[in-house]
Write a structure and sequence with these properties.
Blueprint lengths: L1 H68 L38 H23 L4
């Protein structure tokens, strides 16, 4: 009876040790590595969100600065292009062709609207970054 109990106890200890070891190598270590990898990816994504938000704000600020630094051209007064007397000025208008590589210039209202959209997008990025992870 005593030897049966001893053998049972040794089997129980060895079995539980092997079971715990199996759980450790098959469950705990892979889960730990996966969590570590996810934390590294999270850090990379968070820095990308920070950089994107800063870039959007810089572009929006640049657009706003261009709006404030560029002034509208002065209005053309009557008689400056075509003389009031109807005479010829010697200047004939020539048609101009737009090249395909010519960048589109934005009006002041377009620039302000685009800057506002960029700021709103940067705010959305900040909100997404600030939300707690589940």
């Amino acid at each position: 009876m005593r030897s049966s109990f001893t053998i049972f106890l040794i089997g129980l200890v060895l079995g539980s040790t092997l079971g715990i070891g199996g759980l450790w190598t098959q469950v705990v270590q892979p889960a730990y590595q996966e969590i570590k990898d996810l934390n590294e990816e999270h850090a990379v994504m968070e820095s990308a969100l920070n950089e994107a938000g800063e870039t959007l704000r810089e572009v929006a600020g640049t657009l706003r600065d261009e709006v404030t630094t560029t002034s509208a051209p002065e209005p053309i007064l009557p008689g400056e292009i075509i003389p009031k007397g109807g005479g010829t000025s010697g200047v004939t208008p020539q048609p101009t062709e737009l090249k395909s590589g010519t960048p589109r210039s934005f009006r002041t209202a377009d620039r302000k609207q685009l800057a506002d959209k960029l700021d709103a997008l940067a705010t959305k990025l900040d909100t997404a970054r600030a939300q707690p992870t589940r």
